[in-house]
Amino acid sequence: MKYHIITFGCQMNKSDSERIAGVLEKSGFNHANKCDGVDLIVFNICSVRQSAIDRASARIKKIRLKYENKNIKYKIILTGCILEKDKKELNKFCDEIFDINELPKLPEILKKLGFKIRSVEFKKKHYFELMPKYQSPVVAYIPIMTGCNNFCSYCVVPYVRGKEISRPAQDIICEIKKAVLSGAKEVWLLGQNVNSYNGKIQNTNLKVKKEKEINFPTLLKMINDIEGNFWIRFTSSHPKDLSDELIKTMAKCHKVTPYINLPIQSGDNEILKKMNRPYTVSQYKALIKKIRNNFKKYRCGIEKEVAVSSDVIVGFPGETKKQFENTKNNFEKIGFAFGYIAAYSKRPQTAALHLNDDVPNFKKKTREKELFKVLKKTILNFNKKFFKKTAEVLILTKKNDFYVGKTRHYQTIRLKSDKNILGNFVKAKIINIGPYGLRGKLME
Ligand code: SF4
Questions:
Q1: DSSP structure class, residue 206
Q2: Whose alpha carbon is nearest atom 4 of ligand 1?
Q3: Cα-based distances in Å from 424 to 56, 183, 405
Q4: Would you say 404 and 390 are in contact if contact means Cβ atoms under 8 Å apart?
Q5: I want to staple 129 with a disulfide (CB 3.0 to 4.6 A). Which of 125, 180, 243, 427 is the partner?
Q6: How much distance in Å is there from the Cα of 114 to the middle of ligand 1?
Q7: d(CA 298, CA 61)
Q8: Residue ranges in 27-142 assigned as alpha helix (H)
């Protein structure tokens, strides 16, 4: 029996797909790189953006059309973080739909669909406890928490993922140790709001075994202390939970790369209020200043620079030209090294659904483009700091004649080598820079 998984969404969805693959392989399925000839296609999708749902829905319908005409037998299962409304719309194209939290029930679902699977029993487990099948030999996505208590007015995550749940620290440490032993060189700690991680750990110093709570900075220190040569990255962070303790810990833990994704969402205070984001632009800027100062204090060389990436929504209900200009100006002033710009789209169940979505689509698109221009400029300015400097690089893939990797600052870098350096850490001198990445020369 063969399976293929199609994922639409963020790194958390990618990580969930690795756990789905783990369950399928334990059940007796083998992975296939494409849909042709498989017995099972799993769509792991996300309702956060309407555009993602539209793309997923178009793909499911296309597959149905393609294989139905050829009378091929296969099943489609849909999972992910999906709103009820989207489930209803896609129901007739799928053989089964389940929420990602119900992943331990997948073997039962497969049996119900007529698959003769190996007997596996996961029922009582949380889906985090299921062993993943990592897609990459060197990058390990490790979920540390799921859900969100913040209810930003535009976001469906609290409705589809539920309240925040933190994974026990021992489980996280254990999974990371195993991943590092099997060759992982980059560990991504994932969660909708990793900064508010509040997990439990067994207090071994006591004669009577007792659990104690630990926060994200403590977890980060524990992961940093794991033996081995690997990088730590994490996403996503909410500015309101980025404590001084966390900033200092990041800067002092040298396995943590000098990169942070800190979504600002808007550069205008009024819009932030309407978004239910409880900080002002000045408070956000003060955080960035603190991060930069701490890295300057505790790191050396180019590690003193921090790459700050951000997510932003343009065309939020009621966003005036002036408010958008505020976002543009602040984007430029903060100097982001990366950014993810999205045009606002109405989502069911959210508070913003009741606001007048009065920015026309063409204006949202224009604002997206205008902000992207600013972003290209700030990325280029950031990358300029690296010209002729030496960077540590993790090589992730090879395209044509070039090896492509990521620097510790998360810049994409291309370089040539006669040796096979795939999956290795290498040192490269930066010989060319641009807004989309760097060119490097391999140092011996
Ligand atoms: Fe959504 Fe806001 Fe939670 Fe992020 S913090 S997942 S944007 S509700």
A1: S
A2: 192
A3: 34, 10, 9
A4: no
A5: 125
A6: 38
A7: 53
A8: 50-69, 84-90, 106-112
Residue 4's SS3 state is strand
pLDDT for the residue 122: 72
Contact of 123 with 105, CB cutoff 8 Å: yes
Whether 151 lines ligand 1, by a CB cut-off of 6 Å, is yes
Q: What are the structure tokens assigned to 139, written together?
A: 């990058």
Alpha-carbon distance of 188 to 281, in angstroms, equals 28
By alpha-carbon position, which residue is closest to atom 1 of ligand 1?
A: 155
**Low-confidence spans in the chain with pLDDT less than 70:** 123-124, 204-209
HSE, CB side, 13 Å, CA atoms: give it for residue 368: 17
Question: Residues 6 or more apart from 420 whose CB is under 8 A from it?
Answer: none
C-beta separation of 45 from 53 below 8 A: yes
pTM for the model stands at 0.93
Residue 80 token pair: 């992910």
How close are the terminal C-alpha atoms of the chain, in Å?
46
Report whether residue 349 contacts ligand 1, using a CB cutoff of 6 Å: no
Neighbouring CB atoms inside 10 A of 66's CB total 12
Ligand 1 pocket check: which of 238, 275, 316 to mutate, most ligand atoms within 8 Å of Cβ?
Answer: 238
Determine whether the shortest distance from the Cβ of 238 to ligand 1 is under 6 A.
yes
Predicted pLDDT at 345: 92
* DSSP helix/strand/coil, 119: coil
Distance 33 CA to ligand 1 centre (A): 32
Compute, in angstroms, the gap from residue 244 CA to the centroid of ligand 1: 21
CA angle 190–171–204, rounded 5-degree value: 130
- Ligand 1 centre from 265 Cα, in Å? 10
Tell me what pLDDT residue 209 has: 67
